[in-house]
Amino acid sequence: MDIDWGWIGDHTDTLTDHALIHLRLALLPVLFGLLISLPLGVLCRRWGWLYPPVLTASNILYAIPSLALFMVFIQYTGLEPATVMIPLTLYSLSVLVPNVVDGLASVSEPVRQAATAMGFGTLRRLLRVELPIAVPIVIAGVRVAAVSSISLVAIGQLVGQGGLGYDIIRGYQLQFQTQIIAASVLIIVLALVTDAVLVIVQRLLTPWARARGRAS
Amino acid sequence: MTGVAAPDEDVNRLITFEGVTKRYPDGTVALDDVSLECPTGQITVFVGTSGGGKTTALRTINRMVEPTGGRVLIDGQDVRERKPAELRRGIGYVIQHAGLFPHRTIEDNIATVPYLLRWNKKKARDTARQLMERVGLDAGMAKRYPFQLSGGQQQRVGVARALAADPPIMLMDEPFSAVDPVVRAELQDEFLRLQDELHKTIVFVTHDIDEAIKLGDRIAVFRTGGELVQVAAPEDLLAHPADDFVAGFVGQNRGIRSLSFADTAELSLRDDLVRPVTAAPADTAGLDWVLVVDEARHPLGWVRGPEVTGPLADAALAPVGGTFQVGADSVRGALDAAVLSPAGLAVGVDGGGAVVGVTGGAELLAVPTHGEHHRRPGKEHPVDTAGADSASAVRDGASD
Amino acid sequence: MNDLWNQIDLSWSWLTASAQWHGEDGIPHRLVQHLYYSGVSLLFAALIGLALGLLVGHTGRGGFLAISVANIARAIPTFGLVLFVVVIEYSIVPVLIALVALAVPPILVNTYEGLRGVDPEAKDAARGMGMSEWGVLWRAEVPMALPLILLGLRTSAIQVVATATIAAYPGFGGLGRYIIDGLARNDYQLVVGGTVLVVALAVIVQLIFAALRRIVVSPGLLGTARSS
User: Fold this and answer.
1) Total of domains in chain C
2) Domain named ABC transmembrane type-1: which ranges (chain A) (predicted)?
3) Which residues of chain B form CATH 3.40.50.300?
């Protein structure tokens, strides 16, 4: 394969622009997904009957091809960022809700009861005890959701909103390998950096897990 | 079918440790030059503090751990001469949480080793059913799965599974530690009953000295660092701990515990305090306490001599308290009965419940706790004196 | 909402039109193509993912490396990979490679986690009773890890079925053909019809795995294992 380094040098500005758009298109949905899945997960824990239908719904959502989901929304939102971001938010929900529920379920009953016995109210116990303990599992979900989202955005170019997906399709139409490679590699780099940042965030949020990891 | 002896095969199943050492690459010593024998047909208990190497020692027998020095022999043959898998199929193995296979039914769990030995399915399952009965499990549980059983029941399955191919040797690593005290006592009793029938060579690991004393024919005490401190019969261990470590480990009340090994047949019982209910009131006048019995000499209760004013049948009797069966219960049981009695005297009865006599206080403590009468009441030792003798010759007392 | 019903109605008439059920562009032909791409990719992904997952999970060595590689693989933009390799060599193979790359991580990660989650005491007992390493793997670890292994296969299968639509972009057909064509012609009836077919296929995959779970997973595990 021949890489035209000159072309890359000439297009750093546009590639950077596309990368930033790409990141925004990919990560805002994950953020929205997290903001929705936290309360939804808490509710599913509180009312057990809610979880099976939510799980089924998210499984079905997950089965819809991203391209098709973009198409469905294009009629309502047009060639706008929302057309890509709403489906990506839905996808992230299908990963995040189960992880939030599993994370909250990982809080052992003695810990929960000890917190109650020490006088924590329901909300305070949730914020100070249960959610911190759930962090590792929730972040594991966020990592999968973020990396998949970054990879999926490229397909959004077919509905006119793809960030680096533009360069992939353009390169394909022009049969210009360099542009496809540059965009693909940038997408992988974005995903790896995002993943690394999330790992660091988790370490900062859960210093106890780090200490335990070292001890074992 | 090598590795599985026919049940009636007349072989010794003697396990010998010869200077066995296990040193891990990081320098930790789990076993330090351990030598001992686990006699045929007896229960040898490995006991000690955590990190004492007792589990490691057990696991060298079926090659789950390979020693870095010394050797382990079964009937004089180095275990390293046998392939691990083949060796293990001939040795029963029971562990703390039973380690049952959650995906297999109870009967298939029990038949694991028969399947490995390629028995036909019917024979394997028939054996499994028989063993379920033997360990006290209802046959209706055969098709259930482990998660449907209580901890105690799972542990019984674990024992049955280890017995399935009728191995002459059983290794048991804290098999009863994870269940509650009541169930544990029950499992221990049934385990002893089973051993009376089967006479397996058993190596049993526990951290609980009471369990060791209850179950062990011989007890090997391990100390942190993998050092074998003392090997002795339970009563000898209690009477003559080799050093402060063992003394501390067997605990402060080892004196009381050693009474478990004293036979009540040795007690001299007083008959002069026993009165039939028909006796004349004047007969009791000079006595502090009197035990009133019925026509069949079954105890009715205690009464203070001076308080008797009418016929004994009308007297207000204090409860008997406890009784002990002469010759069957240990002196510890008699002491227990004495403490519970309002008169401070233990009532000795025969097998039919008829009073033989009463005893108390200094009398109880005057009985020798070891020597020729060290056989524990209620527990039969196998008639294998040769094995027992050779065992005591191996290593008694401290290494330092 | 009226819009939506209208659409469903249109898609229904599209799906049921007899023209859709014959010829090169008919649903049966596209469905077979789609199933072929999905099946072949899943087969190879399962071979790679299971082999690596079982190896790493059983030995316990290289777990961190395998999981890291699997996570990086998730980051590969399938779309970019497909189009890039197609530019180099116009054939279906690059599409299949991209789908395999997509499907391996969930299988690998779930197999590894499944084996790691097996009760260590059960494994110890298996060895202690004289099972060979091979026996421990097949008689103890795999049956106990089966719920998670199936979950991984299911996740991959659904992703592959949904993503195989991409094959249509460089012109390899499959059910994605309808979606791509519909987009190009502004024919939403075609887009929704194609989507319905893909989703139906994914639902069938879900059902197959649910049935499989019931058949091959021991009832002894379903009592305790997390349902999914």
Assistant:
1) 1
2) 19-198
3) 15-90+167-262+379-394
